Structures are given as C-alpha cells and as structure tokens.
Amino acid sequence: MSEQLDILIVSEEETITNQVLNSINREENSVTVIESKDVSREINRQTRDFVIFIQANTDYAVEQVQYVKSIHALTYVIFLATDSDISLLRNIMRAGAEEFFILPDELSLFISRFPTMQQNYKLRVHSDQESAVVFGRGRGQIYAFYSGKGGTGRTTIASTFAQTIKLESAAEVLLIDLNLQFGGVETIMSLETNRSLVDLKPVIHELNENHIRNVSQTESHSKLEILISPTDAEAQEIIDGDFISRLLRACRRSFDFCIVDLPSAIDENTVTAMEEADKLYYVLHADTPSLKVLKHFEELSERLGMDLKSSMEIILNQTSKEMELKEKDLKELVRYPITASIRKDYKKVQTFMNKGEPIRKAQKEKLIPFSKDIRKFAKSVLS
Ligand SMILES: Nc1ncnc2c1ncn2[C@@H]1O[C@H](COP(=O)(O)OP(=O)(O)OP(=O)(O)O)[C@@H](O)[C@H]1O
Ligand SMILES: [Mg+2]
C-alpha cells in the first residue's frame, strides 16, 4: 500500500471545506470534495481511507455513515457537526463513525488531531493483527473501580493503573475521582488544587474537551489528567445522575481511557457511573467477609435492574500466601472472571504513601511488586 491516503470530503459548505482543505497536506494525500448526493457512487468507485462529512441539511447523514462503513469497515469516518444535536451525534457514532467534532469551536481541535488520526489509521491498516492498539477520539473506554467494602485498595489501584497506562502507551488518559464526600485521589497523587469537577456544572450541557482540561490537573511525571472530586458538602449536592452521565460521555469523547474511582456507597451517582462504564472492576480481598459484601452487592444491583454480567470483572487485591481463600477456590465461588491479582506489598506501598509520592513516575524505573502486578493488568487491557 502506498503511503498516500485517499481522503473524501462530503460537503455543501464552502467556507468550512476550505478551512479543512487548508489543514490537509495535499502533497501527501489525495483529496476529493463531493456533494452528499454523490456519496454512494464515490464510495463504490474506489476504497477510501478517510471520509470527512461536513454536516449538511439532509436527513441522510446517519444512513450515509452506515453505508460507508458497510462498504469498507476500515474507512475512518469523521463527522464535523454544525450544531450540537446530541441525539444525532449519538446516532452518527452508533453508525460507526470514528470521531465527531462540533464546529466552529472544535475545528482547531480537529485540525490538531488529524495527523494522529492518519497515523492511527495507517497503523490499523498495516497491522497484521486485527487487535492492534489504535487510539482515537469518540470511543474511549470507561473503566470504573468499585468495591462494596471500604479500604480495599480502589483508589490506590485505580490511580496506579491510570498512571501505568499513561506512562506505557500513547493513549490520552483521564482519572476521575467520584468519591464526592471524601475524595482521596488528590492525596495519592499529591495534588494541591482548588478546582474540582463541580466547576464543570455551568457548562455541563455543552461540555467539551477544553472545558475538561481547564478543570483537570496534570500529574507532573506522567502528564495524566485528573479530575478531583469536590469536598465541600454544598458542592456535592449539585451533582446528580444526569451530571455524571453527561460528564462521562464527554470524557469518553476526548480521552482514550477514563479511569473512575468510585465510593462504596450506592446512590444515583454511583449507579449511573457503573452503567456508563465499559468495565466495572470490583476490588476484592480473598476472605469470607469480603465475599459476603460482594454477594450483597450482587443482590442489590439485581434489584436495581443493573446488568453487570458482561461488564463486571474481579481484581483480587492484597494476595499473599496466608490468604484465607486461594484463587482457585474463589473461581468456584465467584461468577465473574478474575482479571488480575495484586500482591500484598504493605511496606513498599506505604513508603510511597508516607512520602506523598505517586507509586509510578517513569516508564523505566525499578518497580515494586505492587506496580509489577498493576503493569501486568494494564498490559492485558492494552493488548
Ligand atoms: N496491594 C496492596 N498492598 C499493600 N497495601 C495496599 C495494597 N492495596 C492497597 N493498599 C493500602 O490499603 C489502604 C487502603 O487503600 P485505598 O485507600 O486505595 O482503598 P479504598 O478502597 O480506596 O478505600 P476508601 O474506602 O477509603 O476509599 C492504603 O493504605 C493503601 O496503601
Ligand atoms: Mg478510596
């Protein structure tokens, strides 16, 4: 395959078309601009690498995206919307589009992201394995960490997991602390800040990447983005299920991985986050009291009508030779897959906590057993 990409622009908007054309390297790519009525003919004529739709006043946008993907599933579809009709955008993504941007605000974001998308596309096409790790906006994964019992290691695991993915891949990663009452992530990551996710409330209906990055903190070693929870009682009252759901959807659009640290208390916010998550990692200790709490959580979630069968996985924490139950016993007692086991590493983990330093700081560094286990877990997720 030649390195030249075939880019098709579907547009009736001359000004936007010209702005997009100016941002594409015309020597390295072959670019064709067509009108929306010519989509089927042009798609059938030859294989297209990229199709960029600039929203027109037609009702066929969703069908056209579907059609492009049905002819050649690898074609990378980008939708540039001229208004932020959320239900239209959701349907566009469902139809298989890789990305969307809302103009005019996000035009510069699109332009800055386009080279990465081209690289991702080339990787995807060149890769022998279909499962190559490809990152792109619009279909970021939400991984939530939960446990019905407090103090099981959610915050430590979620933040080290996020840090590991950020350090060991090219992905954009966001860590979100939803412990609205007590927080916790800011201590482990030693952040001092007066901004929290509640500051997104005024813009929650039009939330975009810029808003999120204005409020999030950047961890200085890995450049992981972190959204801290508010700690004053008044701020918490502003947050409800609708807020959580809008927040997570916007985060998913802008980051490849959104790692959510959840509190043990089950309320509207926790339930919404669990439902939005692609994976719910339940952090479990291998002892009878912890299994009882897990059973109780299963019953409660069933009563609440939550379907966790396909999304919930177990992360075994604090494993050791003295464990009351062995992993093979647990496999028989628990009906969810055990995705990772993390060794008990009290002294070394505590040293970091006492120094107020994040456990992972560089891609190449000496790893304590806890970090090695988290790395194994993170690698299994990335591959
Ligand atoms: N594998 C491990 N080995 C040693 N210590 C650990 C391990 N996992 C967690 N810890 C320690 O256990 C304590 C509780 O961990 P953490 O705060 O992450 O739990 P949590 O589930 O988030 O608790 P909370 O209910 O307070 O939110 C911390 O002191 C942490 O350092
Ligand atoms: Mg915690």
Automatic annotation (TrEMBL):
* Residue span(s) of domain AAA: 141-312
SUPFAM superfamilies reported in the protein's UniProt record: P-loop containing nucleoside triphosphate hydrolases
By its UniProt entry, which InterPro entries does this protein fall under? AAA_dom (IPR025669), P-loop_NTPase (IPR027417), ParA/MinD_ATPase (IPR050625)
List the Pfam families: AAA_31
User: Which protein are we looking at?
Assistant: CpaE family protein
